[in-house]
């Protein structure tokens, strides 16, 4: 994972070459860096900003050629060059994140994307179905040694089957979005702690926290099932009431 994205550091450096040049050579490259980042990342504000900074840079160099190397020129050029480098560095994170998203989706100009949330959803979508999630839980139940955690996982498997038993795709996708990716990460971390066989206060505290979280997750599954059943009962009652009212209107009751 890189500094600003989920890609490797080498990938970020490779695609930041013009931004890096802008920071090391602020007297030339910042407007070009803004233009490149604005076009590739589809950042309209940065694209327009590049034209403004090109005008400022042009004005600074014209001032030098026609007025000379005065104290005012030194102050003006320092502010303009520093400002250009600062703007590039401010947009670097957004540019890299949008560039990563560009490999996944078709970016829209100036549309804001929640990078972390999008990547989280993408990771969730890689869990193709409820059945694969159940298979994954079953795998963790097999390899985890702690009996209490295995019990929580068994409870989760049972509840997942009940919650998604009606083959409602929307309900299944929503359930996976809420729980699947986080549960996978938590169980993996817990299993790694078990494998480490390290015994100290820090590891013990982390193990207890993860075990408590897994227990709370199983309770959340149960609450979701209860909520679903209440919703179904409300739907039945509403449908029954509507049916009886219709029969009364028709004079059949």
From TrEMBL:
Q: Where are the transmembrane segments?
A: 16-39, 46-66, 72-92
Transmembrane as a keyword? yes
- Keyword annotations for this protein? Membrane, Transmembrane, Transmembrane helix
Protein name (Swiss-Prot/TrEMBL): Uncharacterized protein
Q: Which organism is it from?
A: Myroides albus
